[in-house]
Amino acid sequence: MTEIETFRAEVRQWLEADCPPSMRTPITSSEEMVSGGSHISFRSEEQRLWFERMRDRGWFAPGWPKVYGGGGLSPREQRALEQEMLALGCRQPQYNLGIWMLGPVLLEIGTEEQKLEHLPRMARGEVRWCQGFSEPNAGSDLASLRTAAVLDGDAYVINGQKIWTSHGDKADWMYALVRTDPQAKKQLGISFILLDMKSPGVTVRPIELISGKSEFCEVFFDNVRVPAKNVLGGVNQGWGVAKKLLDHERAAMSKFSEGGAPSLDALAVAAPYLVEAGPVWRDRMAGALMDQHAFALSVRRLNEMALAREDVAGLSSIMKLVQTEQESAKYELLQQLMGQRGLSPEGEGFAAEEQAVCRLWLYTKSYTIAGGASEIQLNIIARRVLGLPT
Ligand SMILES: Cc1cc2nc3c(=O)[nH]c(=O)nc-3n(C[C@H](O)[C@H](O)[C@H](O)COP(=O)(O)OP(=O)(O)OC[C@H]3O[C@@H](n4cnc5c(N)ncnc54)[C@H](O)[C@@H]3O)c2cc1C
Q1: Distance from Cα 371 to the centre of ligand 1, integer Å
Q2: Spatial distance between the Cα atoms of 99 and 113, rounded to a whole number of angstroms
Q3: From the CB of 133, is ligand 1 less than 6 Å away?
Q4: Residue 211: what pLDDT?
Q5: How far, CA to CA in Å, does 330 sit from each of 257, 269, 333?
Q6: CB 367 within 8 A of CB 332
Q7: Mean pLDDT of 291-301
């Protein structure tokens, strides 16, 4: 056996022995996801065990160097681990923006002090991060953001507001975009800063949604002092840092089909309905599943290209767009196929998987907005990938 085959076989053996059975079932609701940080909670003993076992191997961040708390795996080993987890249906042990998005950027451009302060705690799931980008008048047009940071001695004083901050009420730290030069052209006056949510002057208010549940918050800054050393990537260089981070966000979202988000075995759920439904429905479902399969193959091809050090930058927008639109269309189809059985996210008289279809149908709609709406991805693809004129 080659080295990588030996590694793969060992990983499989370990996963078979150490990934508890209940952690090998699909997650059908975001409430079943574990997020690290000081507010961490587990729904079962098996969930806690799985979290701790993966953490102790450094496999929350398998590809990061060991000195920063990662697993020290090579890209090929990391991919083998991902594939083996996928093959066994293992759940992600934790979901943390720190690991997915901020960590890779810190690794690339952080100072040694910043890396040592944040990466090991992130890799142990001790700190939960939230993203402070969007503002009431700066969503798609993010560069219009107005939250101001003014240098005062060795700290920036921050005033302003963020919105749609997912889990802002449970986060320990935020990475945020702030305006450090109000005179400069929009994109050139922005800095990327790391701030402790316990800092005096930070107020977090959950946003109530019609469902009664919400992961969204508004975050207000009232003279919040943040050490100047917490700027990542240089003062007024934040736009470039944000673009790097959004690339990682989109790449992470494009891997949702690999167990990165709540999902269902669509065919198993659809099968009883397809027996009764006509050939048109079967054809549509087959099309959706083929799209899903083709997408998985494209992810594999991209991974191989990345391993071969080919340039895959910019492709994350294509993958994010296709993945989120496909997932949304798949659940739309399932929901239509099930008729009124697929219309209740909770309540008596509906089977668990029927409720899950409805929840996921609603949830996947948000995927096409979060991380930059589909229209914005199309704009990015036109400019960055195809080089079309603006
Ligand atoms: C589930 C979810 C989680 C989120 N979490 C966070 C978070 O943690 N932190 C954070 O900072 N933000 C978060 N957001 C906010 C998200 O980044 C914004 O919602 C998104 O960027 C769109 O901005 P907007 O809501 O202001 O919509 P708008 O920018 O007002 O867009 C409205 C519509 O107009 C279209 N549009 C806008 N401009 C153009 C254009 N130039 N060309 C073509 N069409 C255009 C858009 O595509 C969209 O359909 C989250 C959003 C969702 C749905």
Answers
A1: 7
A2: 18
A3: yes
A4: 65
A5: 12, 12, 5
A6: no
A7: 88
